[in-house]
Amino acid sequence: MPHVLLGLLAAGNRHGYELKRAHDSRLPRAKPLAFGQVYATLGRLQRDGLVVTTGQEREAGPDRTAYALTDQGRAALAGWLAAVEPPMPYVTSTLFTKVAVALLVADLNAARSYLIAQARAHTDRLRELTAVKTAPSTTLDDVVAVDYAVAHLDADLRWLRTTLARVADWHREVHS
Amino acid sequence: MSGLQARGVIRSYGPTPALRDVSLDVAEGEIVAVTGPSGCGKSTLLHCLAGILRPDKGEVHWRGERIDTWPEAARSRLRRTEFGVLFQFGQLVAELTAVENVALPLLLAGTGRREAGQAACEWLDRFGVADLADVRPGAMSGGQQQRCAMARALITGPRVIFADEPTGALDTLSGEEVLTQLVRFAREQGTTIVLVTHEPRIAAYADREVMLRDGVVDPTGLGLDEPLVPVPAAGPGAGPR
Lengths: 176, 241
Ligand SMILES: Nc1ncnc2c1ncn2[C@@H]1O[C@H](COP(=O)(O)OP(=O)(O)O)[C@@H](O)[C@H]1O
Ligand SMILES: [Mg+2]
Prior knowledge:
Chain A: InterPro entries: Tscrpt_reg_PadR_N, WH-like_DNA-bd_sf, WH_DNA-bd_sf. Chain A: It comes from Micromonospora matsumotoense. Chain A: Residues 5-78 form the Transcription regulator PadR N-terminal domain. Chain A: This is Transcriptional regulator, PadR family. The structure holds two protein chains of two kinds. Chain A is built from seven helices and three strands. By secondary structure, chain A is mainly α. Chain A folds into two domains: 2-82, Arc Repressor Mutant, subunit A (Orthogonal Bundle); 94-174. Chain A has a three-stranded antiparallel β-sheet. The longest helix of chain A is centred in the C-terminal third of the chain and has 35 residues, at 140-174. Chain A is elongated. Chain B has one domain (2-217): P-loop containing nucleotide triphosphate hydrolases (Rossmann fold, 3-Layer(aba) Sandwich). Chain B is 32% helix and 23% strand. Chain B has seven helices and ten strands. The longest helix of chain B is centred in the last third of the chain and has 18 residues, at 172-189. Bound molecules: adenosine-5'-diphosphate and magnesium ion.
């Protein structure tokens, strides 16, 4: 989140409220930012010298302070944009963990029932998000966000189905 | 009775059973995906529903009429009017240009040359390939061919589109674009789609999914041996107290 705020400030000085609005419209399928989060993050960025408050105060209202990116902030943003994210350094997923734990503490049927229920929930969500793409007034912002979610749900679904086929063998191995 | 129904459809190829008692109801305006692993009978079901193949046993009904017993000429007329078919490879006529290919169904139905050509151009334009009007299929990409095939399938204003793996030969982006256009158009016109695919991502374009397995409808929808009692979905408040 801090880097997203830096990125939004790169386009020009903004108030906290404007940052929240810009975030929510650029990343339409993300969880909307809370004001508290925005101000807390701006506070930390200011402390670290990445942003400064500008003199452009508003007359009234709770949101009087506008922020600007410093040279140091600009460099931090460029560094973050250029850095490749480590591709899944740890294999962690609630889905995966849940099946592993189910096999430890419950029976095979519990693990399978969970996998089935999860696959159904994933399929429903996949359909819901795909409908966003075919809606008449969809924007490219939406399509790109939905594409990301669809690819991940699709990958999860493949994993869920494969694991469903393997879970009996896995259970035998865990309890041998 | 409106819409499309299969009732107890059985179909074999010689000794190979392809469909072993399939029943299916598709409402008008509905988009239904038929899914399942390769060889489970999806294409055979689509061909039976579209009146291309005749079931060995069972019935197919369209808008209250039993169509599987119709003679070939009547079924083939149905496929030129109320039904449209779209296959994995566009199956355009190689010797004809895009506009000639798209105009073909209208010409066969007796529409004049000029009028058919004009309508074909409008349809090509609607799917973003107007500039390919005078190009032959051999010089087009898979996605472009599929857009032309889609225009050809829709030009007669069918009420049902039967699509068999329409994105199967396309890269991800072209596939998505072709399907988005098809589904948008169908929703706009209230056209019914029967969409055969083995990909969950493609099936998600439909309102609902019917999974086949070894020639029968799989009630679990997940290719399981036996249906299991599902656990309730986790939500807020679920979990240990
Ligand atoms: N023309 C044919 N001749 C003989 N067997 C066929 C023919 N078409 C399909 N089959 C067989 O019928 C079964 C179902 O095929 P199909 O309907 O094409 O399945 P799907 O489309 O799901 O891959 C398969 O076992 C397939 O080998
Ligand atoms: Mg097939």
